[in-house]
TrEMBL record:
Belongs to the helicase family. RecG subfamily. NCBIfam families: PRK10917.1-1, PRK10917.1-4, PRK10917.2-2, recG. Its EC number is 5.6.2.4. Plays a critical role in recombination and DNA repair. Helps process Holliday junction intermediates to mature products by catalyzing branch migration. Has replication fork regression activity, unwinds stalled or blocked replication forks to make a HJ that can be resolved. Has a DNA unwinding activity characteristic of a DNA helicase with 3'-5' polarity. This is ATP-dependent DNA helicase RecG. It comes from Variovorax defluvii.
Length: 700
């Protein structure tokens, strides 16, 4: 026998070879419960106190109580519906038990004269005490010493079965310390003690400290979890440090594309832009692949930073790719970058290429050929840019706009595109600022550059909340703007499940506005269903001020840039997410004119707006600071939704809460590098315990 057979690792519930998993095992797996440690880390959502027997006379209405009593009456009645009614007496008082669903075995258990232990919620009705569907056991067995855990479960997995499996997994788990004593989290318990306690707490625990996770046992779990997150991201970062990227030395020549572009720009860079451009240039000059997130509020000028990074890359004789999640956004970038760079590239025998999925094959083939030959020094498009069929001659820099909409798969697809053993440098741009704690936690594997300064000359946007029935006043406002030669956006909401309805709704709004505003005003319509060419035409007409009003669904959400637009109306604003509203609002206030954003909202039948919607509208009215908006958005939505695609595959924090556990996050951030340096084996064991196979996603 091989040596391993002597001590089989009890990783999986026993299973005969050749037999598939049982329904219970399948259900457990669905809950992510495979390894012993997964069970140990699967913590109760609440507890039941079965440690005490109380007297009926001492219970009050609403108490959950456990009593031992003798059955004095038991009968099945059929009116108003079939039910089992049982009376029990514990010497202090009586209580009626009612069961609408019951088995013959239960009826037998509750025969007159039986002594039973009953647990349920006491209701003090006019007919005396009652319990509906209490749990019933034989009386007299030993009372448990600890609270009874209740775990969140799914169909097909009964609570007692899950409880038994968790208990067994916990007992089998090797809970050796992974955190050396000198690093232990302040005030927290050792892991083994913490887990045993959290599954089976002593009955005298202050329940509130379990519920709000402030108990030292919880502190330990949260600290452990945050440390695992930090360690895994640091491991990923260090692993990347071993990869190679083409080192792109800056070219200090007045003829460089970089210099030419700076000269051609109609404005001077802000201090923040200069700083960030320099940070990126330093990264690009290194042989290690850059992994940088560029964040800045809407309108902070990320595009020109991207263009300068591209110029740096092209000056070094390499190719750059820029990707956006939607075609319209990619087209906007393309327009800007072509405007800036194409004339300069043409002088150098180079060009900007355009690649999307909707392109005609002939055009795409031509573009792909110029990418392959290297003539296309810059390639702009949707994720078609990284499709397998596109071969780069010498890609060195990939820029991803709206990174949160790109998942791990796309990031992985970039690998190998630089040719040979080399990885491209990666610059990710985020349209939404990321709250600090979230960035430190979920983005710890990235370097972050922040544009914390808006270009000069912007006038603050006034935001108004207006109820739907005052729509006419809003149309008057539009007239005022138009009379001043300004342009207006009108955004219609997405009606879920029905693009056809969106379209009808947006079309009707366009017609309504066209009629209200008269023949002199051009009112255009932009909808996600339109063919790309038509969208482009409409966008161009609006940009050129041939159209004065643009009605659209959220396709203008990101990136579009028409400085003459000074009013944005968002219809059914209560249906939009907060970041989305902020992005939309950022489309105005780009020029010197005073700008406004009107959020039209429609109360529902009850005359109210839902709580979350109200919080979003309130935030919009109160602040236009993107970082503050992001913080509130996180508060309203929680990290899961906030993180979008980054979260797919990336394990969310289950226990720690970044708003209350910031100090534990600091502790973990500080400890992670020291632990990797001094105790690499413990660090790996720690990550494996917490993340297991899920740590893989970070290798992307
Ligand atoms: P975002 O960060 O939202 O992508 P953009 O790159 O679209 O912002 O820039 C917003 C607007 O500000 C654009 O019209 C851009 O040309 C302009 N802009 C960028 N940088 C500056 C600057 N330093 N001075 C003046 N205008 C600028
Ligand atoms: Mg942008």
């Amino acid at each position: 026998m091989p040596a391993a057979a002597k001590s089989p690792p009890p990783e999986m519930p026993a299973q005969a070879p050749g037999v598939g998993p049982s329904p219970v095992q399948r259900a457990l797996r669905k809950l992510g419960l495979v390894r012993d440690i997964d069970f140990a880390l699967y913590l109760p959502m609440r507890y039941e106190d079965e440690t005490r027997i109380v007297k009926l006379a001492d219970t009050r209405d609403g108490d959950v109580a456990q009593v031992e009593a003798v059955v004095t009456e038991s009968e099945v009645v059929f009116r108003p519906r079939r039910q089992l009614i049982v009376t029990v007496d514990d010497g202090s008082d009586t209580c009626q038990l009612r069961f609408f669903n019951f088995y013959p075995s239960q009826q037998k258990q509750l025969a007159v004269g039986a002594r039973v232990r009953v647990r349920g919620e006491v209701r003090g009705g006019f007919a005396g005490r009652q319990m509906m569907h209490p749990s019933v056991k034989a009386a007299g067995t030993a009372l448990p010493q600890a609270l009874t855990p209740v775990y969140s479960t799914i169909a097909g997995l009964a609570q007692p079965v899950l409880r038994r499996e968790v208990r067994a997994g916990l007992a089998r788990s090797v809970l050796d310390e992974t955190i050396p004593a000198e690093f232990a989290p302040p005030g927290a318990w050792p892991l083994r003690r913490a887990l045993n306690f959290l599954h089976y707490p002593a009955p005298d625990v202050a329940m509130a400290t379990l519920e709000d996770h402030s108990h030292p046992a919880w502190q330990r779990l949260k600290a452990d979890e945050l440390l695992a997150q930090q360690l895994s991201q640091l491991q990923a970062r260090r692993a990347r440090g071993a990869q190679r990227a083409p080192a792109l030395s800056p070219v200090a020549s007045p003829d460089s594309l970089d210099q030419a572009l700076r000269k051609a720009l109609p404005f001077a860079l802000t201090g923040a832009q200069q700083r960030v451009v320099a940070e990126i240039a330093r990264d690009l000059a290194r042989e290690v692949p850059m992994h940088r997130l560029l964040q800045g509020d809407v309108g902070s000028g990320k595009t020109v930073v991207a263009a300068l990074a591209a110029a740096h890359c092209i000056d070094a004789g390499r190719q750059c790719a820029l990707m956006a999640p939607t075609e319209i956004l990619a087209a906007q970038h393309f327009g800007k970058l072509v405007g800036w760079l194409d004339p300069l590239l043409a002088e150098r025998g180079l060009r900007v290429a355009w690649l999307t999925g909707s392109q005609k094959k002939k055009e795409r083939d031509a573009m792909a050929a110029s990418v392959e030959s290297g003539e296309a020094a810059l390639v702009v498009g949707t994720h078609a840019v990284i499709s397998e069929k596109v071969t780069f001659r010498h890609l060195a820099l990939a820029i991803i706009d709206e990174q949160h909409r790109f998942g791990v798969a796309q990031r992985l697809a970039l690998r190998g595109k630089a040719g040979g053993e080399l990885e491209p440098h990666l610059l990710m741009m985020s349209a939404t600022p990321i709250p600090r704690t979230l960035a430190m936690s979920y983005y710890a594997d990235l370097d972050v550059s922040t544009l914390d300064e808006l270009p000069p000359g912007r006038t603050p946007i006034v935001t108004k909340l207006v109820a739907e029935h005052r729509r006419d006043e809003v149309i008057d406002r539009i007239r005022v703007q138009l009379a001043q030669g300004r342009q207006v956006y009108w955004v219609c909401p997405l009606i879920e499940e029905s693009e056809a309805m969106d379209l009808r709704n947006a079309t009707e709004t366009r017609d309504e506005l066209a009629e209200a505003l008269g023949d002199q005003v051009g009112v255009g319509l932009l909808h996600s269903r339109m063919p790309t060419a038509d969208k482009q035409t409409v966008m161009e007409s609006f940009t050129a001020n041939r159209l004065q009003v643009l009605v659209s669904t959220t396709v203008i959400e990101v990136g579009v840039d028409v400085p003459n637009a000074s009013l944005m109306v968002i219809e059914h604003a209560e249906r939009f997410g907060l970041s989305q509203l902020h992005q939309l609002r950022g489309r105005v206030g780009r020029g010197a004119a005073a700008s406004a954003c009107v959020l039209l909202y429609a109360p529902n039948e009850g005359g109210r707006v839902g709580e979350a919607a109200r919080a979003r509208l309130k935030a919009m009215a109160e602040t236009s600071d993107g970082f503050e908006i992001a913080r509130r958005d996180l508060e309203i939505r929680g990290p899961g939704e906030f993180l979008g695609a980054r979260q797919s595959g990336a394990p969310l924090l289950r226990f720690a809460d970044l708003t209350t556990d910031a100090f534990l996050l600091d502790w973990a951030r500080e400890l992670a590098p020291r632990m990797l340096d001094r105790h690499p084996a413990l660090a790996s064991a720690h990550v494996d315990r917490w993340l297991g196979s899920k740590a893989e996603y970070l290798k992307a």
